[in-house]
Amino acid sequence: MDETRPSAQLLLSAYAQGIFPMAHPEQEGRIYWYAPDPRAILPLDGLRISRRFRQTLRKKPFEIRFNTDFEGVIEACAEPRPGQPQTWISEGIKEVYTELHRLGFAHCVEAWEGDRLVGGLYGVALAGLFAGESMFHRATDASKICLVHLVERLNARGFSLLDVQFQTSHLERLGVIEISREAYEARLVEALKLECSFA
């Protein structure tokens, strides 16, 4: 088995068990598998929008699209960030998620400013689960606005679980909470019983 590029089938099986992959940049992109405890999720009725950000949303500063440039989004997410010269999004990760996109399981939300992609996020939809993988922005608030549109779509399509994997101070301000692995797995079981379509 290629330790730098899992198969699409293996990836879907892992998500159904609450496990996700990350590549280790210092080990030539070797894949490691994670099921953190606690696990970070964004309750679909718990997104926090500040007064200032609500004003930004009303202005509609970007055109929001779904699934029109998946490769552009994942490439942008893989770019090194300040203080992080390396990334867990390896070539193997990009390849398998792009395959999942072609198969209808991986999706993206994009923020456009004219013909320029200025923000986005991507993840995997499986039954009533959406597993958020990464996001990026090249303009202020672009990724946050994509998250708002993601939550709106998941609610409209009947999803029950938005997994964001790890907590950060930024995500906490948006309403992300941590739950035990046991509680996450219980929610996952219920989410996998649903019949939802992201597209």
From TrEMBL:
Keyword Cytoplasm: yes
Enzyme class: transferase
Keyword line: Acyltransferase, Cytoplasm, Transferase
Reactions performed catalytically: N-terminal L-arginyl-[protein] + L-leucyl-tRNA(Leu) = N-terminal L-leucyl-L-arginyl-[protein] + tRNA(Leu) + H(+); N-terminal L-lysyl-[protein] + L-leucyl-tRNA(Leu) = N-terminal L-leucyl-L-lysyl-[protein] + tRNA(Leu) + H(+); L-phenylalanyl-tRNA(Phe) + an N-terminal L-alpha-aminoacyl-[protein] = an N-terminal L-phenylalanyl-L-alpha-aminoacyl-[protein] + tRNA(Phe)
Cytoplasm keyword on record: yes
Family annotation (Gene3D superfamilies): Leucyl/phenylalanyl-tRNA-protein transferase, C-terminal domain, Leucyl/phenylalanyl-tRNA-protein transferase, N-terminal domain
InterPro entries xref list: Acyl_CoA_acyltransferase, Leu/Phe-tRNA_Trfase, Leu/Phe-tRNA_Trfase_C, Leu/Phe-tRNA_Trfase_N
Function summary: Functions in the N-end rule pathway of protein degradation where it conjugates Leu, Phe and, less efficiently, Met from aminoacyl-tRNAs to the N-termini of proteins containing an N-terminal arginine or lysine.
Family designation: Belongs to the L/F-transferase family.
Name the record gives this protein: Leucyl/phenylalanyl-tRNA--protein transferase
Origin species: Lujinxingia vulgaris
Gene from which this protein is expressed: aat
